[in-house]
Amino acid sequence: EVAAILRDDAGGAGDAARGQAHFTNLCARCHTLFGQGAKLAPDLTGYERENTEFLLLSIIDPNAAVREEYTDFEVETADFLVLTGFIKGQTPDTVVLEDGQGELHTLSQKDIVSMRAISMSRMPEGLIDALSPQEVRDLFAFLQGDPSEPRP
Questions:
Q1: What is the chain's mean pLDDT, rounded?
Q2: The pLDDT of residue 1
Q3: pLDDT recorded at residue 10
Q4: Which segments of the chain does DSSP mark as H helices, in order?
Q5: Which of 4, 65, 132, 136 is deepest in the core (most CB within 10 A)?
């Protein structure tokens, strides 16, 4: 359905400036694009942004492909603390976990009871469901835009 919206010439072209507002509201809490946004998820600037199918799959089904460095792990400690996050560092003595707010937690290996990978992306499904067809075109105009163009 979204692919059809993007191909619908009758709907007109997307507006990158309006799309930037949608990016800010929906994506920039976790992703960076053109230097704007947070660093809790991959920086999209260097991604294959011109590939509409790739972007659509990533947005509509974020669990289809989760990059290894963005795999969440659930760690349970001996004192029943359960943390979830990316492994940012690991030694024979410690594990450093980054949670969903960007906080780092250094855990002693000897205190870890279990550690398992979670096969689901942090990115929620349905992010663009509330957008109108024009708003989707606007978002994609920004996502697939030229990074050298001036940004407000």
A1: 89
A2: 66
A3: 60
A4: 2-7, 16-26, 52-60, 133-143
A5: 136
In angstroms, the Cα distances linking 112 to 80, 94, 117, 148 are 10, 9, 14, 47
Residue 72's pLDDT band, with cuts at 50, 70 and 90, is: very high
Tokens 């979204």 sit at which residue? 2
Containing H/E element for 114?
A: strand 112-118
Pairwise CA distance, residues 11 & 9, whole Å: 5
Closest CA to 135 of 4, 59, 23: 23
pLDDT digits (tens, 9 = 90+) for 50-64: 888 888 888 988 998
Enumerate the H helices of 47-119 as residue ranges.
52-60
Position 89 scores a pLDDT of: 94
Are 37 and 30 contacting, i.e. CB atoms less than 8 angstroms apart? yes
The pair of three-digit structure tokens given for residue 146, joined into one six-digit string: 């030229």
CA distance 144 to 137: 10
123 three-class SS: coil
C-alpha span between 69 and 53 (Å, rounded): 23
Sole residue written with tokens 């947070």: 38
- Kindly state the tokens that stand for 140: 């994609």
